[in-house]
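How a chain folds remains the central question behind the approach discussed here. The record that follows shows the chain in one-letter code together with its fold in token form:
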Amino acid sequence: MTKIQQTLNISALKTAAKTAYSNAYAPYSKFYVGAAALTKSGNIVSGCNVENASYGLTVCAERNCIAQAVINGEHEFQTLVIYTEQEKLTPPCGACRQVIAEFLEQSAIVTAVNHLDHQISWTVKQLLPDAFTPKDLE
């Protein structure tokens, strides 16, 4: 993938994540999150966080994004972008890190962006070193 293609993909992913953010359901925490992923086949999928009055049933944007892709038959991803309107950029929670490690290669990039156009990126390995993955079940 060329540098221009990478830039176009990240821009499209930011837009998709921001759109998903606008659909987030977060009446309790007021912490709205959108996520978008680029699949290995080149499709963009997105998801938002969906809270529940029974807090433990809340599902994060990253997991909803990946689940949406799986529903559509996609199981492999190139990268993931997370969008919030927090001033401090927010990395994925622990549960999301585990799900991300299930579907993205350890060298894949996860990027957090915000409304101020700040961004920070990590590899999956940086987010969850020594992750338990399907390879551990072989």
Remarks:
- The domain at 3-129 is CATH 3.40.140.10 (Cytidine Deaminase; domain 2).
- The chain has a mean pLDDT of 94.
- The chain is about 30% helix and 25% strand.
- The CA atoms of residues 20 and 34 lie 5 Å apart.
